[in-house]
Amino acid sequence: MRRSRPFSLPPLLLGLSWLGGCALVAGLGDFEPDDDDGVAGSGETSSSSIGPGGGQPGGAGPGSGGAGAVGGNGASTGGAGGLPGNCDDGAMNGDETGEDCGGSCPPCPIGEGCEVAKDCVTGVCGTGNLCACSNHLVISELRTRGLNGAGDDFVEIYNPFSTPVTLTADAWSIDGRSGTGATYTPRWISTGETIAPYSHLLIVGANYISSPPGDAVFIASITDDASVVLKNNTTTIDAVCICINCTFTGVGHICEGAKVANPTAGDDTDASIERKVGGAAGNCVDTGDNGNDFAASMPAKPQNADSPPTPTP
């Protein structure tokens, strides 16, 4: 829920430390982003004179913060006005755009306030200045093998938009390249599938035995060490690298940030990697770093076109 910024006094009033013999107090009370994440900060302590007994009024806080409140030893804390907020006090202060998030604090979750993309864990500051889902189709879950061995694999695509997306026939594809492979080859080519809002498309291997059933079948399966890309014609829309030994040979593998450890470790177990937030909360987080955006899921939780839409942001 977006919270309003605290009220700020005009700079002229903030510069006054006394008015009519009374202290004028202006101490103001108050996740994915782009690669240039903000750095979490804390409340700024002002320079102040130490007073005896009850203490003298605290001095003005640094930056554009207001005058500090009267303290027992004269120390005070500067106000808001663009200073870093206290990121763990359960309040919205400083330059935060949500409660304990945004600005110089950790990025905000979906639905919290934002001013720029890096305020949001998804890297998308959407309509109404609220953090929203990713702004493109994403690979939302991936398994390279399952209880039925190699070929019991799948790739799940998620539509984070409030409108359906039709995958133009022959234009969209999932391409793969093994960790030791020299080139990418198509593993699936679209035939005009439509993905409903906040819903999924499930492409599965020939030996897939899990539930729910797949919406389409691979041309060739995904290896345990692989770079997997979702493409629209020649444009890479999303990419993920999954691996066991995580040492790829050759050059040109397309990965977003760090590779993700394959939770199957080459064994025939029901485990996948799933894009955060995950499950019924949706798969909206895409910070451009696979290592940050995916988590292991045991068991796997595939969703197909008939699965219920995940909640909207």
Describe this structure in words.
- By secondary structure, this protein is mainly β.
- It folds into two domains: 32-104, no CATH class; 138-297, Immunoglobulin-like, CATH 2.60.40.1260.
- Helix content is 3%, strand content 23%.
- The protein is built from two helices and 15 strands.
- It has helices at residues 11-14, 290-293, and strands spanning 18-19, 22-23, 138-146, 149-158, 165-166, 172-178, 185-189, 194-195, 200-204, 216-217, 226-232, 235-243, 260-261, 272-275, 294-297.
- Strand 11 (226-232) and strand 12 (235-243) form a beta hairpin.
- It is globular, with a radius of gyration of 25 Å.
- Mean pLDDT is 78; it is low at 1-81.
Question: What are its keywords?
Answer:
single chain, 313 residues, mainly beta, Immunoglobulin-like, 2 domains, six-stranded mixed β-sheet, five-stranded mixed β-sheet, 2 helices, 3% helix, 23% strand, globular
Give the proportion of residues in helices. Answer: under 10%
For the largest beta sheet, what order do the strands appear in spatially?
10-9-4-3-14-15
Number of domains: 2
Tell me the CATH superfamily of the largest domain: Lamin Tail domain
Q: What's the assembly state of these chains? A: single chain
Low-confidence stretches: 1-81
Instruction: Fill in the CATH topology of the largest domain.
Output: Immunoglobulin-like
Whole-number mean pLDDT: 78
Structural class: mainly beta
Count of DSSP helices? 2
CATH class placement of the largest domain: Mainly Beta
First-residue to last-residue Cα separation: 11 Å
CATH architecture of the largest domain: Sandwich
Q: Given the C-alpha coordinates, what overall shape results?
A: globular
Pattern of helices and strands: HEEEEEEEEEEEEEEHE
Largest β sheet strand count, sense and barrel closure: 6 strands, mixed
Fraction in beta strands:
15-25%
Number of strand segments:
15
